[in-house]
């Protein structure tokens, strides 16, 4: 016990010194002559945490507390720590009900102040917020080895789709998402599906999906309700799938099934990357200084009782590109960030956890392009992604891009 205490003290001292160095270096730093002088804070630098009034923030405080040695020490009052602020309050230590996280958590009905007046989709989200694993019912275990030459794909294209969107998937297969070799690079495409359930009044399309998958073998399906607020589940499950089924992919494009992607342009862009830019790449249509919508009528409405604060920079979920090397780190980060109902914001939160921020590229047009350019073949040459395009438009634009007679000077 005494040994452990000593270790904790040494660790704490080390962290305080590091924090100090961090603060000094952030604030521009003192004179060069003073740089070698180490100043140790004379007083404790932590203070008692107060529970957030917003449910997501509170869950995040708990996750942040777990496995944080400084806070564990700060709250520990049985080791002669004169600066202790303990004991650990129940709200911080308690992880909520310890039962199966995939059973509905009815404690939210009393912990979220205005639960009863929230839209049903938010109630559903809150009840299942702790559940992160759902069974994979359609898998492609060897899709990343089924490549020409059997090597990992250079680009993995992952498209968020819904069971009923057969035509969008087929248009993608016939255009920008065609699997195989493109510009001498291996491309693999998968479609990410949940279950379009009877609960949400979807017709039963499972037989047609079965046929489609037998023909194309590019569908991944997990058994959870495929709804807008469950897209974060899709993200987390996909990262998990990647880490086991396709860990060698060099780059990943993830996006919606109603965007057009200039895959040739993407490959051309990736060709020029190296070093840490290639390793930490996360690029798209980045939105900064955004916050939750407080208008109940908006699809993205998030009440104050769920989230307080601003969003980190995030790349619009219509489509973004990131490095395979980041996948494992994003998966790790996701386990330390409470699920949030908006998937692209959630991914931004995970990046922030890793100390990274997405990069903006003006070729990603998740908000579309000017209408007058819609039918201008040359407009698409310099773009990487355009939202939104119909299946017919996808095939048309792809043909334009492949037309060598087209002269765009
Ligand atoms: C820490 O413990 C001591 C005695 O064990 C007590 O006097 C003191 O009030 C405690 N401090 C806090 C912040 O709980
Ligand atoms: C915090 O929770 C852990 C695990 O649930 C438990 O062992 C410990 O006694 C709790 N500590 C306090 C101070 O409540
Ligand atoms: C295609 O890529 C392979 C290795 O990935 C390389 O050896 C070959 O030279 C490339 N061919 C062309 C035409 O670039
Ligand atoms: C999807 O949900 C329906 C019920 O709505 C169920 O019958 C079906 O088995 C589920 N499909 C999968 C693939 O789990
Ligand atoms: C997400 O999926 C789970 C599992 O099917 C479901 O219980 C829950 O209601 C869904 N949440 C939303 C917001 O649709
Ligand atoms: C990521 O890149 C670093 C540096 O090149 C390397 O050491 C590490 O093994 C890579 N990780 C993965 C998962 O590829
Ligand atoms: C481009 O057109 C050529 C000739 O029509 C065709 O062979 C090729 O497959 C097309 N490439 C793509 C990427 O569609």
From TrEMBL:
Signal peptide extent: 1-27
InterPro entries assigned: Glyco_trans_31
Catalytic reaction annotation: a beta-D-galactosyl-(1->4)-N-acetyl-beta-D-glucosaminyl derivative + UDP-N-acetyl-alpha-D-glucosamine = an N-acetyl-beta-D-glucosaminyl-(1->3)-beta-D-galactosyl-(1->4)-N-acetyl-beta-D-glucosaminyl derivative + UDP + H(+)
Major localization listed first in the record, in broad terms: Golgi
Gene3D superfamilies the UniProt entry points to: 3.90.550.50
UniProt topology in membrane: Single-pass type II membrane protein
GO cellular component: Golgi membrane
CC cofactor: Mn(2+)
Subcellular location: Golgi apparatus membrane
Annotated pathway: Protein modification; protein glycosylation
GO biological process, one term: poly-N-acetyllactosamine biosynthetic process
One Gene Ontology MF term: N-acetyllactosaminide beta-1,3-N-acetylglucosaminyltransferase activity
Keywords: Glycoprotein, Glycosyltransferase, Golgi apparatus, Manganese, Membrane, Signal, Signal-anchor, Transferase, Transmembrane, Transmembrane helix
This enzyme's EC code(s): 2.4.1.-
Family, as annotated: Belongs to the glycosyltransferase 31 family.
Record's subunit section: Interacts with B3GNT8; this interaction greatly increases B3GNT2 catalytic activity, independently of B3GNT8 enzymatic activity.
Protein name stated in the entry: Hexosyltransferase
């Amino acid at each position: 016990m005494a040994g452990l205490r000593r270790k904790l003290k040494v660790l704490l001292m080390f962290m305080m010194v590091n924090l100090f160095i961090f603060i000094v270096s952030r604030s521009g730093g003192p004179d060069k002559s003073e740089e070698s002088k180490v100043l140790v804070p004379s007083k404790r630098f932590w203070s008692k945490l107060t529970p957030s009034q917003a449910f997501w923030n509170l869950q995040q405080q708990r996750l942040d507390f777990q496995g944080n040695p400084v806070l564990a020490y700060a709250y520990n009052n049985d080791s002669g720590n004169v600066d202790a602020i303990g004991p650990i309050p129940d709200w911080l230590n308690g992880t909520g009900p310890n039962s199966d996280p995939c059973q509905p958590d009815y404690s939210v009905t009393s912990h979220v102040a205005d639960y009863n007046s929230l839209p049903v989709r938010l109630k559903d989200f809150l009840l299942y917020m702790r559940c992160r694993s759902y069974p994979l019912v359609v898998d492609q275990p060897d899709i990343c080895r089924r490549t020409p030459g059997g090597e990992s794909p250079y680009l993995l294209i992952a498209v968020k789709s819904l069971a009923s969107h057969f035509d969008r998937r087929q248009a993608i297969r016939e255009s920008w998402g065609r699997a195989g070799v493109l510009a001498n690079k291996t491309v693999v495409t998968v479609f990410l599906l949940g279950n379009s359930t009877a609960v949400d009044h979807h017709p039963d399309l499972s037989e047609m999906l079965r046929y489609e998958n037998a023909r194309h073998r590019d569908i991944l399906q997990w058994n959870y309700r495929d709804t807008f607020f469950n897209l974060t589940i899709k993200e987390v499950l996909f990262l998990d799938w990647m880490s086991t089924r396709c860990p060698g992919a060099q780059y990943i494009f993830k996006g919606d099934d109603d965007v057009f992607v200039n895959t040739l342009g993407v490959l051309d862009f990736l060709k020029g990357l190296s070093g840490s830019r290639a390793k930490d790449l996360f690029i798209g249509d980045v939105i900064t200084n955004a916050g939750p919508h407080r208008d109940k009528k908006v699809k993205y409405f998030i009440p104050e009782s769920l989230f307080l604060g601003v969003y980190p920079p995030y790349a619009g979920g219509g489509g973004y590109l990131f490095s395979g090397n980041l996948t494992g780190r994003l998966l790790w980060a996701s386990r330390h960030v409470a699920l949030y109902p908006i998937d692209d914001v959630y991914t931004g939160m995970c990046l922030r956890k890793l100390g990274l921020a997405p990069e903006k590229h003006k070729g990603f047009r998740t908000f579309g392009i000017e209408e007058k350019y819609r039918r201008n073949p040359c407009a698409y040459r310099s773009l990487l992604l355009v939202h939104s395009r119909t299946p017919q438009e996808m095939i048309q634009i792809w043909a334009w891009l492949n037309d060598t007679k087209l002269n765009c000077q």
